[in-house]
Structure prediction request, 833 residues.
Amino acid sequence: MMETAMKKEQKKIGLLDKINIFRKRHSESTLGAILIVFIIFLSLASDRFLTLRNISNLLRSTSIVGVAAVGMTFVIISAGIDLSIGAVLGLSGVIAALLMTSGVPIFLSVIGAVICGTVVGIIQGWVIYKGNVPPFIATLAGMMIIRGGVMLITGANMVSGLPKSFRSFATAEFLGLPAVFFIWMVVLGLGAFIAKYTKFGRNIYAIGSNEEAARLSGINIKKNIVAVYGFCAFTASIAGILFLIRLGNGLPSAGTGYEMDAVAAAVVGGASLMGAEGSILGTFLGAIIIAMIRNGGNLLGINSFILNIIVGSLIVGAVLVDQKSKKQGK
Amino acid sequence: MRNWTHEVVRMTGIHKSFGSVHALKGVKLQVHAGEVHALVGENGAGKSTLIKTLMGVHQKDQGEIYIEGKEVTVQDPIHAGQLGLGCVYQDVTIARHLTVGENFFLGKLPMRKGLVDWDTVYQKTKETLDSLHIQVNPREVVKYLSVAQQEMVVIAKTVHQDCKVVVFDEPTALLANEEVEELFRIIDTLKKKGIAVIYISHRLEEIFQICDTITVFKDGAWVNTVDTDETDEDRLIAMMVGRTIEDMYSIEHYEPGDEVLNVKGLSRNGVFENIDLNLRKSEVLGMFGLVGSGRTEIMRAIFGADSYDEGIIELFGQEVKIKSPQDAIALGIGFLPEDRKEQGLSLSTSVKENINLAAYDRIINKGIINLRKEAAVAERYVKDLLIKTPSINQKVKNLSGGNQQKVVIGKWLNRDSRIFIFDEPTVGIDVGAKREIFRLFEKILAAGNSIVLISSYLPEVMGISDRLIVIHEGKKMDTLTRDQFEEEKVLRLASGIKDSVEE
Prediction:
């Protein structure tokens, strides 16, 4: 009798497991399917969609937010949020531009700007941990302070006169696709690697799931929280360099509103603001889908206000579907 | 039996099962207007289950409930409120950022011309508070009140809903002595108003102070209902404990070896003071005390989860400074917290990640996790500990309580911990899983490691421990060896009564 009971339980678990594996892969596979449907639909609806030129444009414009969204995904997994990444993006671009125009070599300027942006993120992480300030508030304040600082440094003027060799990177291509796209891929690869293969990555999931349990398991919460905001600012700073490349001038208002686009990409990609849920692949797919709606909509001549409504509905829809499947899983 | 005239609640033949656990086995309870009726029994005796059945939180499987002679089916807590049943739960449920008055009228604020009628809100709140002689300003925001005042507000709010019956579930757990007196005064007022009071408490001296009648439960069954005047603490404890101790709470005992942990004069202001304890190799040291006695806090301080103000901790013969769980873990201590869902596990991550969580350093090479080793470690513990999970990638929240607990144990075994602190390891898990956890205890001891077992279930802590420390209000009452284990004696010590009879 005992044995049959055991078998029964095993069987039950088997079924539960299947549901769970489906759920785990659910968001990514669903997103992949949605993406394919979009591509088929748009290439049928508009003969301009599936051209190398359009695809290049699409990837070029998505890369910047896409890079910043990698760091944002980590912060969201840790059950936090970083509203300052748009401002950090602007800061990094302007610093790189200022350094270059004052004669610092391109490479060093870029490194300097990225370090500067990352340090700003580290400071915010420190305030969040040490001061016990909610991440939303700390980074909202950070956003205002950083953007204010950028405006102050530049007098709200564009920084122009960047070296030609730097600007030429804007049109650089590799295998027929824009070079910035490959930078995005590298950052994505880095993010996916960190999530899977490093202790930091695992710790962030554990902290997002249950900070107290993580602490009682010997995880250094302070180090990891500071690091995750540092990493988020790091990817935002790289995005700032990409923005600078694209525009050819240091724009003080660069990146305004990008924080919300990055959150949107992560959420559509299956991340939960409650923490411990989300993946880099999901965020990538989320970013591409949102970009494709806007791009396809433009090609089909759909009013951009309507596109906003569609994207907003998509975000809510993604969360609703996710919640529903989670409830059914239980 | 005293003659009560007006019966308010009668529950008869109540059965309730949760899965295979038969929590209530045909119990009965009868309470009258103006009566203060105590419900006593050990943890797991079924007191809370009965109350939750009465309040519509659980649905009974069998049996009848009568309110003022009429049979009712309590559908949910809202329905219970309409029937005149109120319950003051242990953890104060109140909106801390709102005023007292708003809390009173939460969800049913009176309106006048489309606006909230604040005058009525505060007027009526004041009337209710006055009628119970509670001196609290209805316009005060709740969070500025003391814990005791908050509890008074909760009580007044419950009464305000035209209550016929008020249940108090461990109401004094968080109160200081003078605040308890305040509570008793209010209970007395309720009594005079003809309200029936059901009072659940572990503190027997309180029960003798304010209750008229006592009903004793044990293991989900009704044992006896007696007048308070006709019994005493000893007889009550004997009834609560019963005669038989189940043999399931037993493990193989090993010959204790050298001292591994020695704590001297550990104190934390206002929580526990001057605690001495020691633990030897292959030994189980039990820690018993009532909820709020400080037993968990003492061990949390030794683990570095909380700070302590004074004291010396020696591990394996060397004095150590433990400032964080990280320090304690590095020194070989593992901690299984009381609340595994809130503190023990990362529920949304996998079995694999939870088992490796405290020991990623060991499978990292140049900063990169060896995924093969990570999986192998997890597979090994799933097999060794008989963790029932379809795969190591299963999220922990989908496992049963017993298997979740095994995952936590696996985490510390994997970290090669030498001292395991178990805080209520078998709460909320079924009998079979309990046995398996005790088998794991034997493995830990056989490997030469040691266990501290914190438990509020006496048969468990007495059956498993080699020695037992009893804590009462932050002070160590005594250390007992196995031959001194006696339920009545332990309960007396835990209630703060030093043995005087035998002397």
